[in-house]
Amino acid sequence: MSYEELLTETALSDDRFIVMTAENRALVRNIPAKLGNRFIDTGITEQTMVGAAAGLALRGRIPVIHALASFLSMRAFEFVRTDAGIPNLPVKLSSFIPGFLSDGNGPTHQALEDISLMRGIPNITVFAPADEDDLVKMLPQIWNHPNPSYVRINTRKTDYQHTPFEWGKAEIIAKGDDVTILTYGLLFEQALIATDILKKEGLSVGLINIRSLKPIDERAILEATRDSSLTVTLEDHFLTGGLYSIVAELLLKHGLTANILPIALNEKWFKPSLLPNVLEYEGFTGKQIAEKILGYKTFYKQPEISIPQFSE
Amino acid sequence: MQFTTTHINQLEATALNVREHIIKMSTDGGCFVGASLSAADLIVYLYSDFLNINKNNLDDPNRDYLFLSKGHDVPALYGTFAELGLLEKERLKNHLSVNDHIYWHPNTKIPGIEFHSGSLGHLPSVAIGVAMDIKIKGGTNKVVCIMGDGELNEGTCWEAVLVANAYKLDNLIFVIDRNQFQANMATEDLVPLEPLYDKFTAFGAAVKRINGHSFEALHEAFSAYPFQTSKLNVVIADTVRGRGLPSIESRADRWFCNFTSSEVEDLLKELHGEHLTQLTSETLVVR
Q: Is A312 on the interface with B (CB under 8 A)?
């Protein structure tokens, strides 16, 4: 089932649902004809759309709202925080082309701080599916939960069949003594490739599809850091504020430490190009990830948060 | 500058070359062809005749400025830069390569591009800042900001008009590429903009509405700059999305195009007046 089919089915069976977009129709192409006046396109007005979604939610509706990730999470940020976060209204954000998925668009369209921003808003829940199968498995619970939500929409098809989604739980793909990769979103595909390479090198490798960034599965992460010699946080997000930060906060909260290798974008935007070229150029292919892990020697050495002098 | 028939022919020849560059960039990943073609004549006219910007004066604080706010029409700017000597023509082949800086939205690594864009409704305000400083310093440079009509959905565009009016920025010109379409549909079918002339006038601007594909009309309008003392200048340039390629002109489903190489060959012939192109590549790849 596709994202659009699931949304259509959900909205047709429950008339509380309203589908909204700020003129981003890629995910909802056929919905206007199906939903009639429960489809609302506000034009290129992300802030107004979020405010209107709050108004609809005040009246008992569940608005599922669409825009490009960078504009939904950043341009409309204060509207999300103030109009959906403060009153804890069930406004459901579907963010299109987050992270590396914005491929050739350039830094204006690169949402690489969205996890950081959205999880910082009280009441808002945050999710990042590995692929379309993972996405459609998690959305029913997200949409029926009373809180507002932010979902990094990822409709890429893979052959992987995910386990059913459990609220607040990560999907533990494998456990390993030597290394465990924690990841979310489209990099799950690359992590699977990296895992295979590392296994061939004789390592015992774990892999966790985080799925839910907030609430976070504390137990899964703490067990991985306890049972593996090395834990890798792999994400198409800035180093600051995403999964690496979440793991760091969690370890500190429990008075623990661990060997962590973060793979993320450290104070930089990525080179705009088509997705396969982006992954290769930035060092995020499965093979490159495996090489980084194999080359990791220095325990307890964490990266500097660099302050580079450059402009895009 | 003498606005002779010879000169008009030169501008038209340049614009035709720019359109060729745009079409050649619409494959191997594609680009926003329609919006680039609608803005091509405007951009060629402004750099050729109106703006004091060339490869030798980019560091001169007294030169003029052009801000491309709609952003996704940047292939028209790359093409114009290539024709006017600001960018090597060979580099256009690097579109979307990780080894260059030529991609779907503008960035300042290309000399001559003033500011990155792609998030709509940002550059009207950046242009205001530049125009304000020019006013403070008593300069005579002109500041142009090209905006899309769909972009006018964003509230910040209208805040910018109010603020430009408050600060009497008659050195600033907002040019609207009024091609009647936004990503998915006609502007008037979604969030209607008309009567657009009256809206800008009511917000305090001095407005001209012209045919954005006529170099005579562009010349006549911009020759009248500043349109009125102490008022923001606005030019609504009526254009056709996809101008030059009847196969895609004003088609809602041809916004972002990633044509096959054989389609590109046919579209280049179509540009030069031959038969329409049979398009079979995927449509509605909406970004």
A: yes
Which structural domain, as residue segments, surrounds residue B205? Answer: 5-271
Interface touch A273/B118, C-beta < 8 Å:
no
pLDDT digits (tens, 9 = 90+) for B217-241: 999 999 999 999 999 999 999 999 9
Mean pLDDT, chain A, integer: 95
Residue B280 belongs to some domain of the structure: no
In this structure, the strands spanning A179-183 and A205-209 are: parallel
The CATH number for A3-152, chosen from 3.40.50.2300, 3.30.70.260, 3.40.50.970, 1.10.3720.10, is 3.40.50.970
Q: Is B124 on the interface with A (CB under 8 A)?
A: no
B30 vs chain A: nearest CA distance in angstroms?
10
* For A105, nearest residue in chain B (alpha carbons): B104
Tokens 């096959």 correspond to what residue? B260
Of B282, B277, B121, the residue nearest A29 (C-alpha): B282
Contact call for B97 and A273, based on CB within 8 A = yes
Mutate which: B153, B256, B282, vs A, most A CBs within 10 A: B153
Chain B residue at shortest CA distance from A27:
B286
Q: Domains in chain B: how many in total?
A: 1
Portions of chain A given CATH number 3.40.50.970: 3-152
Q: What are the backbone angles phi and psi of residue B216, rounded to the nearest 5°?
A: -60, -45
Say what angle helices B155-166 and B123-137 make with each other, to 10 degrees.
10
* Amino acid in position A155: T
Quickly list DSSP for B52-64: ---TT-TT-TTS-
Q: B119 touching A, CB under 8 A?
A: yes
Contact B101, B123 (CB under 8 A): no
How does DSSP classify residue A270?
P
- Find out whether A96 and A24 touch, Cβ atoms under 8 Å: yes
Q: Which residue in the set B29, B107, B119 is minimally distant from A70, CB to CB?
A: B119
Please name the CATH architecture into which domain A171-294 falls: 3-Layer(aba) Sandwich (3.40)
Tell me the chain B residues in contact with residue A312 when contact means C-beta distances shorter than 8 Å: 107-109, 116
| pLDDT given for residue B278 in this prediction | 86
Q: State pTM to two decimals.
A: 0.93
Q: Within chain A, which residue ranges are assigned CATH 3.40.50.920?
A: 171-294
Which chain A residues have a beta carbon less than 8 Å from that of B105?
Answer: 105-106, 108-109, 272
pLDDT score of B286? 47
Q: Are strands A171-174 and A205-209 parallel, antiparallel or unpaired?
A: antiparallel
ipTM of the complex: 0.88
- Closest C-alpha among B62, B96, B63 to residue B258: B96
**CB under 8 Å to A289, separation ≥6 — which residues?**
A181, A190, A191, A193, A194, A232, A234, A263, A283
